[in-house]
Write a structure and sequence with these properties.
CATH architecture of one domain: 2-Layer Sandwich
Shape: elongated
Helix content: 40-55%
CATH topology of one domain: Dna Ligase, domain 1
Number of helices: 15
Strand content: 5-15%
Length: 490
């Protein structure tokens, strides 16, 4: 009993629940709880539990928030954008992702710049797309384009394409002037590139590209074309360097524009070089006088033909010191792989092509055929002149003291060949024919100021191997078209 008084908990446990249980216990008394089990839990354990429980709660809320944010960003990313009509977006060079996003939002391409930046960063870092870069350029954005569409367009660099077309046969000066007139390009070209160093082609660029960069692309392309063609050249050619091949290619480029004749024209010049004959190419006359500013369609004067300069192949033997234009790949390959012929002459056939000959006799026969074509052309020109005269408006009589307006003067027909020298050009109507007498005799007394050769026609002057001139006097009235019999001459 004394122990029960000392421990009230034990006393409560052993006390009977009812008088009947006191007389006859129905169950054994429960085991008393020890003092250790009745003590409170440690405070450190309780704090850790509370911290862990709170942490789990924050994680759950964080995951829920992150999931909701991802869903919201995806909604912005996939939904159609606010752009109402197609537009061209210009992103200047040097802008970062924040500036680009601000520009997109300001111009109404996207609805939220932060959503765009978040999606961009998520795609690049979480999606492991390290190559995803926002590039400067000019982009065509369709109406209603989503952020996904806009991001893919800018990251892929699908810029609006601009092109500069460089035809074959232009001088370097003409190419630079053409590029200066293209307002889609920027920057300045401080020096004219070396003649022949630019590859004619169509070059694509983004708006605002630097002109000097396009020029460097042209130089690299021409160097590659020339190098590859040089490695595949035919043995036994009469030049030793790639630069000499480029010079001859420029002459071939200006002599013919027909793809199926370049190898034959190249063979004529190669054969003449091997025999030590002068090339006597009309385009070299013009370039020697006017340089890079030459106009290829103008008629050649006798004084120009006799001008002594380093490029005039009527006055020099062999090749000029530099190219006379920028030849295309076809002309370069033709010079390095000319046709297997012994031709030394070629003359126009009247249909835009040429007739090639090995001997002077064959060449003169071809010239005779050309004269028939020339006669037909002259007859057609005369008929056209009569029709124009009949349709000429009548000048009304003017009152006394009032000067009548000057009647329109018929301007001479000029050659308009541009960069397609295969076309048969016309020349001034009153152009007399210069004839060559046999054995170097003095020519007939005709006007000396106009030479009826056209450089773009592609005919080589008539000249026998012994260097003596041959008679080729035209019959009938003065010719109004170039006479290829004059090609080649001494």
């Amino acid at each position: 009993m004394s122990s029960n008084r000392r421990d009230p908990l034990l006393r409560d446990v052993t006390r009977p629940r009812s008088p009947a249980e006191a007389l006859e216990p129905g169950r054994a008394p429960s085991r008393p709880r020890s003092a250790k089990r009745l003590r409170e839990p440690p405070k450190a354990v309780s704090g850790f539990v509370r911290f862990f429980s709170g942490f789990l709660t924050l994680v759950v809320f964080g995951l829920c928030a992150a999931g909701g944010s991802v869903l919201l960003l995806r909604h912005f990313y996939e939904q159609p954008g606010p752009l109402a009509a197609n537009t061209v977006l210009v992103i200047p060079a040097g802008e970062g992702r924040t500036e680009i996003a601000e520009r997109l939002e300001r111009e109404g391409v996207i609805s939220n710049r932060w959503a765009f930046i978040a999606n961009y960063l998520g795609q690049r870092y979480l999606g492991r797309r390290e190559d995803l870069q926002l590039k400067a350029g000019e982009y065509d954005i369709k109406a209603g384009a989503s952020m996904r569409d806009v991001l893919e367009i800018i990251a892929a660099g699908k810029s609006v394409g601009y092109k500069v077309v460089v035809p074959e046969g232009l001088t370097s000066q003409a190419i630079i002037e053409r590029m200066k007139g293209d307002l889609s390009l920027a920057g300045e070209v401080t020096a004219i590139p070396a003649e022949g160093s630019l590859a004619p082609d169509t070059y694509s660029f983004n708006k605002g590209a630097d002109r000097s960069e396009i020029v460097e692309r042209m130089k690299a392309a021409q160097a590659q074309i020339l190098g590859e063609a040089w490695e595949k050249r035919k043995p036994g050619l009469p030049f030793e360097t790639k630069e000499q091949a480029l010079v001859l290619a420029s002459i071939v480029e200006k002599e013919t524009g027909r793809q199926d004749e370049r190898e034959k024209v190249a063979a004529v010049f190669v054969n003449r070089l091997k025999k030590g004959m002068a090339l006597q190419s009309d385009p070299t006359i013009l370039y020697g006088i006017y340089g890079g500013g030459v106009q290829w369609g103008k008629p050649i004067l006798q004084s120009e033909k006799e001008a002594k300069n380093a490029h005039n192949t009527y006055q020099i033997k062999g090749l000029p010191p530099t190219p006379i234009c920028n030849p295309g790949q076809a002309a370069i390959e033709a010079v390095l792989n000319p046709a297997d012929t012994k031709d030394l002459y070629f003359v126009a056939d009247g249909n835009g092509g040429h007739i090639f000959s090995e001997t002077l006799k064959e060449h003169n026969e071809a010239v005779a055929n050309w004269r028939k074509v020339e006669k037909d052309i002259r007859a057609k020109e005369a008929a056209a002149a009569k029709v124009a005269e009949k349709e000429k408006p009548v000048v009304p009589l003017m009152p006394a003291g009032v000067a009548a307006p000057a009647a329109p003067v018929a301007s001479p027909v000029k050659t308009v060949t541009g960069d397609t020298p295969s076309a048969v050009p016309a020349v001034p109507v009153a152009s007399p024919v210069k004839t060559v007498a046999p054995d170097g005799a003095a020519p007939a007394p005709v006007a000396k100021q106009v030479v009826t050769t056209v450089p773009t026609e592609g005919a080589v002057p008539v000249a026998p191997a012994d260097g003596k001139a041959t008679a080729a006097t035209a019959s009938g009235p003065p010719s109004t078209v170039p006479l290829p019999v004059r090609k080649p001459k001494r």
